């Protein structure tokens, strides 16, 4: 559990990540603003009218964030895999509008998605050390 905690601690320091989803049976990767919520779910924000919103709702996705220092040849990378679900509760949507990730293009049609971690893996770059041994969260 200590290693999962370290992965989550690192993930909480980043503000931009990449969401990997399926698009016409192929892998697609998009950068997205995100935050790690109090319950350790990844929260991403996008336009409700975007292709991303339609592609990830109720789908299993991978989410990756990292920090790399090329000069030092060091850094870290964390991947969270789980099901993305749209936040539909109005009170929760209002809370995330205040405390969640910032929108890159402000819109009154923004939607939040939660990615419930089923699998968390991570590595420290340069150290070639795995931070978690890829066990399922449940």
Describe the structure.
This protein is an alpha+beta fold. The protein is built from 3 helices and 7 strands, in the order αβββαββαββ. A 6-stranded antiparallel barrel has the order 1-2-3-6-5-4. It is globular and about 45 Å long.
Quick rundown:
This protein has helices at residues 2-11, 51-56, 90-99; strands at 16-23, 26-36, 42-47, 60-69, 74-86, 110-125, 129-130. By secondary structure, it is α+β, with helices and mostly antiparallel strands.
Global shape: globular
Q: Regions with pLDDT < 50 over 5+ consecutive residues?
A: none
Distance between the termini: 12 Å
Helical element count? 3
Which strand order does the major sheet show? 1-2-3-6-5-4
Tell me the total number of β-strands.
7
Instruction: Tell me the β content.
Output: over 45%
The helicity comes to: 10-25%
- Topology pattern, helix = H, strand = E: HEEEHEEHEE
Query: What does the main sheet amount to?
Result: 6 strands, antiparallel, barrel
User: What structural class do the secondary elements suggest?
Assistant: alpha+beta
Cα-atom Rg, whole angstroms?
15 Å
**For the residues shown, what is the average pLDDT?**
87
């Amino acid at each position: 559990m200590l290693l999962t905690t370290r992965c989550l601690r690192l993930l909480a320091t980043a503000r931009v990540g990449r969401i990997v989803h399926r698009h016409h049976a192929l892998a697609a990767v998009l950068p997205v603003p995100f935050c790690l919520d109090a319950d350790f779910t990844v929260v991403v924000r996008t336009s409700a009218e975007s292709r991303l919103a339609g592609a990830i709702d109720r789908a299993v996705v991978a989410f990756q964030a990292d920090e790399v220092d090329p000069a030092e040849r060091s850094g870290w990378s964390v991947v969270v895999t789980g099901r993305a679900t749209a936040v539909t509760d109005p009170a929760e949507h209002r809370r995330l509008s205040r405390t969640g990730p910032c929108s890159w293009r402000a819109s009154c049609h923004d939607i939040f998605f939660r990615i419930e971690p089923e699998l968390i893996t991570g590595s420290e770059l340069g150290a070639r050390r795995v931070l978690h041994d890829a066990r399922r969260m449940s």
